[in-house]
Amino acid sequence: MPSDKKQRKKKDAPPGQAACEAPSTLPKCRQPSMPKMELSPLSKMPAGFDKDDFLFSKLYKSVVVVGGQTINEVLQIIFRQRAGENISTYTLNKLITQIKLSKKKTNSVTNKIPSKLLEEKLLAIKIDVTGGIFLLQKVFYDEYKKLSSHCQTQIQTFRELRNSLSHNYPLTHQDFEPHHEKLKYLLEKNEDIGILQNEIQELVEKKKTNADKELDQIEKYIDEKKKELYVIIEIEKLKIILKDILENVATEFKEDLTQCKDKIDKSLTDISQAKVEQYDQNTYNSEVQRYKDDPVHELITKAREELREQYRRLRVANPCPWMVTDQAENSSLDNFYIDRIYTPLKIEGPGTEVFTEKLLVAGNDLGEETAMSSALVVSGLAGSGKSSLCLYLLHHWAEGTDEIKTLKDYNMVIFVEMRTIKSNSLEEYLKTQRMKKSTAGISSDDIVQRLNDLKLLFIVDGYDEAKKSSRQMVEEIFAKFPEQRILLTTRGEFCNEVKKSARRHHMAYLTIEICGFDESRIQEFTEKVFKVVRNYSYYAQNQACSVRACANFLDYVQGRAKILEKLLELPLTLALMIYMWIDCPAILNRVTTATSLYYELFCLYQKKLNDRLKDPCSDKTLESLMLLVGKKAWELLVQEESILSKQDEKEIEEECINKGCPKEELMSAFLVYECYDTDSECNYDYSFMHKTQMEYLSAYFLVEESENGSLYNAQEQFHGSGFHQVIIFVVGHFARKKIIEQNLKDIFVLLDNADIDSLDYNFWWRLLTESLKNEAFLKEICTNRLPCSEWKLSEKHVVSGLQLLITSPVYTVKNLIIEINDVDPYDVKDLLSIMETLKIKFKNRYTKNNPILTELFFWHHFQRKCNKPSDYFLRALYPWGHLTNFVGSVGEQKEGFEVLRYCFNVKNLRVRLDTCDAEVCLANSLKRIGKGIKNLRVMLALDPSECDADSLVCLPNNKFTGSLELTLPNMTDENKKWIVKVVEKLAGGTSYGCSRIMFEKSTLSVCTVLYLMMELRDMVHEKLTVESIHELTLQEQIELEKQMKSTHMEVNWID
Prior knowledge:
Blueprint: H1 51-83, H2 92-99, H3 103-112, H4 115-118, H5 129-139, H6 141-144, H7 149-163, H8 181-189, H9 191-209, H10 212-253, H11 258-273, H12 281-293, H13 295-313, H14 322-325, H15 338-341, E1 347-349, E2 352-354, E3 375-380, H16 386-399, E4 412-417, H17 426-434, H18 444-452, E5 456-461, H19 468-480, E6 485-490, H20 495-504, E7 509-514, H21 519-532, H22 543-558, H23 565-568, H24 571-583, H25 594-612, H26 619-639, H27 646-659, H28 663-670, E8 671-677, E9 682-688, H29 691-704, H30 710-714, H31 724-736, H32 744-753, H33 761-770, H34 775-784, E10 790-794, H35 798-807, E11 815-820, H36 831-841, E12 852-858, H37 859-863, H38 871-875, E13 881-889, E14 908-913, H39 916-929, E15 935-940, E16 963-969, H40 976-987, E17 994-1002, H41 1006-1015, E18 1020-1028, H42 1034-1047, E19 1050-1054
Parallel strand pairs: 3-6, 3-7, 4-5, 5-6, 10-11, 11-12, 12-13, 13-14, 14-15, 15-16, 16-17, 17-18, 18-19
Antiparallel strand pairs: 1-2, 1-7, 8-9
């Protein structure tokens, strides 16, 4: 594209010239005034040219061609550094071999760099931008890390700019705000920007005064000018990026790159100023076609549209298809679109809640946009909403919304539904099941390499539902796409398996847990579901009736359904209960467990099926058919399959003929199907709606046929963690039939084979609930399955564990440890209310004379200032629990009513104090209980400006002679005298003293620490630990060491 040196006629801008409308935040350039603009045909260009393509070709040539020249120049410098005089004889492969890369990086090179290029001589290598930056960052890492952090950031920015090209085709303008001072300067110098700003402003003014018929044309003009402006700005930005890279490389490797920088700058300027002429057509067509023929572009544009089309078909999220097929003509699947009924789930990560909209920017601090782990492992119970979350993400990517932060930045989102995998390899899956049309011309060998050039998000749903051979695909994704983002969902029992796989491939991962719905989300979801079913049945004629039915259901949830609270937290079971309520509210009166819920649901299925049949079947016939479906569900689970084979379909069809029930009606009542085309015909794959349905029906079959030995014959199949939910339903069915005691032996053989963790209190409580708390069953669990004398409960298990402890007829527990790390104990639902009932529940079992020795570790209360101290939990221990170890916070109490006053068995205390009065209360307690305390660690989280040190009292006394450690957070140099006085008061001066002091998150200088060492030398027996933002110099280290010798006090400095 030759540069047009002719400049448009310019004059000085008149005073008070208005700023252009967009982008409004650009720096004010010299604003040439323009002759009054007359509207003319849009895109007035020579024949055969398209304005958008022309502008985009400028951007493409700048990034890919000129940017590629820059990256290749940098690589040649590194090649010379590495190969020296032998550069003319070295191939790229030989040079890389000498580096001795890890196996992971070697695999990455194989996937990323074409084999032909690896055998090229170094001097002849011309590599594209993506491959070149990959070599810099991953292969020649020793050279790359020598570059400044700013240069590394610019290289990464350039990589993202290259990857975003296909997002910008067809070209769309974007408002732009220049934060970089260099860029502001360049934009101010660029006269073309001033001209375009003027033209846009004139068009904006013209739009205000013109008739409606011209508005569309003016809008198109404005859009066209904004696109021109956008391209110029992007090229100016690229100038800075490439210049910064070359300057730092020249400095670091002592190379003269002046000519190269000038050449790059001139090339970009020529491209930016280029105007198209008729004689340019061949060149122009060649540039545009070069981009369109780029395999990366072709893959993105074709595959992205193919994927979006698939994901739009996945919008329907209805766990009860018969609710649609059985209702009036007003019914529509559209009502069940995921974006209409999806309700944000409660998702917990380390230390905080994760909000759905920030899911993809979750780092190790979750909620902060910090370094993100490559793999995000999302665990949750069956029916907790894992698949719905995946569908929700797919919907928003397909529609290009901003609802999920950073989601639309991914070139492609590749959905892997584990239970539907039919392929033997990842490449085969991509080419035949996910991107069949768009990868038809791409070989299996090339597809991974091409996809790795893009920014990808893999969404892998249902790891627990896949057969072992399909799980190998996750290994392939980890191995072949180590730099891409992966979100994987699974039930909790498979979490460790996934994490081991990630570690095998050196992939950083983060695990978060879906906890379903809390009370407010239950109401929100209920209202949404009722809203989408208003077209059905009598709701179609009476909207008020629908609103009333919703209110009645919510009243039921708050009242009679309280016993089902854990089930209501699961979106799947809540949806099923809503649907059953809509059909017949009385049904739910019979629901007390998960098994009874599904039992009533499938009874309703059978009723609906019979209502549709011209010749209704007897109940016995329908039950026998349902048993056959249950048998098939069990066989599929054992085989780790989810789709019925043709032989299965044939067997069902033959039974249907024998029983006089149409096969299609039976299949549609219990199964869903997916249609796929072959060369000759249209075929159907039948599968169950979700795995929980398969597990319920499998248990139904095993229990109903148990008299025929089905359960005995199946015992060997229960090895491993894949059948936990089946066992729960088996117990539920035995309880429903009131024959659980007759089958205890078989049940516990299943439990032994399934390798259930004795510390999984949640599982044991769910199992007990499904048994309807059968006494014989309960006694066996508590006697032989649960720990005997010591129970350790985390925030995940504490509520279930305490419920088991309350229910247990066995009184052998002597030690109870409750450790809650990342959450406020008050936020653990039902924990405080259950603990406060223990005084009554444990009456005559655990008492003052026969207590449980209890340890409470409330780390959240110790490390952070919370709304309430731990006092209520401490009071709840009386009289059944005797405290032996405690970590948490203590508040203010009246003298004589201190929460620790009667804790005579406590050995170790780690206490946070947020007020002066709380410190006085602790001191009063120590006068009574101090004798037995070995270690007392106090976090004194006081504000020196608000706390008078004279109001504090001494903690050690004649009874307390143990070790005292003090932590004073957020101290500054201004607080040094206050610190001395506080330590003197709390530690009792030289009479008692303390062993250690920790200054956490301080800004203390070395000078202040030297002062403190002198003032506290007779009160601190061992050491000071200083966590400060101040970094020690060599001279300061020497001064500290000298002071340590004179005061006999050790100082540990952490910066």
